[in-house]
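Take a specimen:
=====
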Amino acid sequence: MPDTAERRREQLVGVFRQARTCTRCELSGSRTQVVFGAGNADADLMLVGEAPGAEEDRQGLPFVGRSGALLTTMLEEEAGLARDQVFIANTLKCRPPDNRDPSTGEIESCRPWLLEQIRLIEPRVVATLGNFATKLLSGDQTGITKVRGKPRIRRLGERVVWLYPLFHPAAALRATGTA
């Protein structure tokens, strides 16, 4: 018998509590807090970025800096969705020092957290934002420039979803010189 939405939300809170004390990789020693994710725990659309930045690490929420403001605008203007209608997470739950790229070991350490989020939220579509999330969840090492905007069916754990690769909002900020 499938879990009810209420039961899945309770389980997601339990996973968050476990993740808050995670020490699977060295990032646990430098983080301010775990940035687990935020939004609608019953969302049909889940967005997955790379890793928390400085502002996200301070606030404990994903995409709250300049990239987050752009993401919110894009959701509203391009998709007609409010931020509270989707769930937003990252490949990593802790900020890498100096916003460096995530290491393979860090990504693998956080992978179970992300797959559990996907299992419990039960999204129909997972939009990956940038290279790291796209490569992890697609299982393909092709760069985002070649695969962006090309949805495909993908099994993530026990869940079959539409995987929709997109550029990370920070790429747009860099391209316009506002990053």
In short: The mean pLDDT is 94.
